[in-house]
Amino acid sequence: MVTGLTRSPQGAEQWVMNVCRNNVQPAIIPYWETVQIDERTIGVLTVPDSAPDKPYKAKRGSAWVTFVRVGSTCREATREEEQRLYQAAGVLRYDIKPVPGSTLEDLDQERLVQYFRLVRRQPESSHELREWERQLANIEVLVEEGARYSVTVGGLLLFGLNPNRFLPQAGITATAYPGQQKDYAVHDAEVIRGPIVPILTEDLAAANAGGVIDRAIEFVRRNMGSSVASDGGRRGRRPAYPPDTVREVVVNAIAHRDYSISVTDIELSLYQDRLEVISPGRLPNTVTVDKMRQGYRAARNELLKEVLRDYNYIEHRGMGIPYKVIAGMRAHNGTEPDLIADEDRFIVRLWKQGTGQNDSPPSESATDPSEGSDRDG
Q: Where do the domains of the chain lie, and which CATH numbers do they carry?
């Protein structure tokens, strides 16, 4: 029931402004106006969508508390939820957070030496321990903590000997299903673990010791099958998905996922009619699907982005989605990829030619065969 203001409009406005300034961090400046309804004066408060300022804290007694929305209710955020809110706002960089208990010995020295010598083209370092640690700290692979150095989250993901020892969420669960739904029966399955970047040859080609990206792309290549293509009057077969598009989707999932979510891998699934990649975490702050379609340079994990750019996995212009994914699929088979931003994950679906794309999206309630089973991932 709307009763109207019980104090003067000027007094109500002053009270509202004081609450917004003194009981919210950072302070907000709402727009205040009054309207008349049936001889009652109604105060109308409009709060701008100041996404870069989020998350906000509300004063409760002498404490400042962050609240999150759950359905139609609000509750106090857990430490992990609050951390993800700051990360989404770009205030906290999770990829340069130190990993407790990690040391230089947890990094693959061969990959690191190759990164400086072959990729960055820097002169050979003496690799005296302290100098080597300082050099790695300069590129945020290590971080100094008192008298010792720890490896950062990004350093372990990129160059770690066994990243999953510290980061169980690192890697990709890849599965090829025979039909259009998840099933216990699979054509192929692989839990892809290890460092992101590969061992290189002198000409910068990836050697047999591939990183997570190359192994995921190879999984797709050997399981995606082919489709019929027509070149003038001739018909032939080609890969079901264009290699550049597959590469872009895999790289984006690895580079931009939310690594603070520790309970799940990236999920890469090949079905009879589509390729689906699910990346944990909501889109970073200010990023929307519409912006991605137009080309948008924003990164959740700056260290990963910069190193993958050095390896030529990522381009400089931020146009991979509109050019390589959307235009790439249109040119390849005339289909439109699905880009879906959910509350806690981002989904990319590439469709095979002639599969009735988007007619009946896969059911999200379909039984996940990994639930209740002992299959890794």
A: 9-76 (no CATH), 96-164 (no CATH), 167-351 (3.30.565.60)
